[in-house]
Structure formats: structure tokens, C-alpha cells
Amino acid sequence: MWTYASGKASESLEMTVNTPLMISSTSKTFLSPLILTQIENGHYKLTHSLETVLSGHPDFSSLPIYKINRMVTVEELLAMTSGLSDFNDNKGGKVN
Prior knowledge:
This protein has 96 residues and is mainly alpha-helical. It has a domain at 34-84. The protein is 26% helix and 5% strand. It has three helices and two strands. It has helices at residues 26-40, 50-54, 74-78; strands at 8-10, 13-14. Strands 1-2 form a two-stranded antiparallel sheet. A hairpin with a 2-residue loop joins strand 1 and strand 2. The longest helix is centred in the middle third of the chain and has 15 residues, at 26-40. The mean pLDDT is 82.
């Protein structure tokens, strides 16, 4: 994979490929078409819940039930009407 960074992260810090960034809603721009392609290819439907879509993943059972409503649909996530809280537990970036 190719990585590159340029510019300044702040007045005193150069941007690097390891500089943590808050992407927030930017990811929806990229993920929505990919998800819709998966739906078009018959992998799942807009009406499927997270539980339906993710239940085959080996880590699904370890998802914290108190943070995730497993019955939220793909459509609700894409329309941003899932009711999931707007939170970020790690606003300081990755920890090494």
C-alpha cells in the first residue's frame, strides 16, 4: 500500500502518515458507495440489521452490547438515523 503525507498538522508539527486525524463523517462519503455495491451484489439488504450483517464475523460476539444496538438497519446507518450516539472514546488519537 502506498502512503504519503505533506503539510503541517499544526504550526510546530509536520504532517506524517502517522499523524492522527479525526475523519468523523468523511468516512461516510467513501463507505456508502461500497456498502451499496455490496447490496447490489446481493450480499445483504438495506433492511438487514447489524446483527444480520455482522453475525458471521468472528469478533461479533465481543461487541459491547451497551454501546451498539444490534437491531439498527443498514439503511438507518447510511441515512444517519440509527440513533447511535455521536461519541469518540479516543479523541487524542492512537496510543502506542
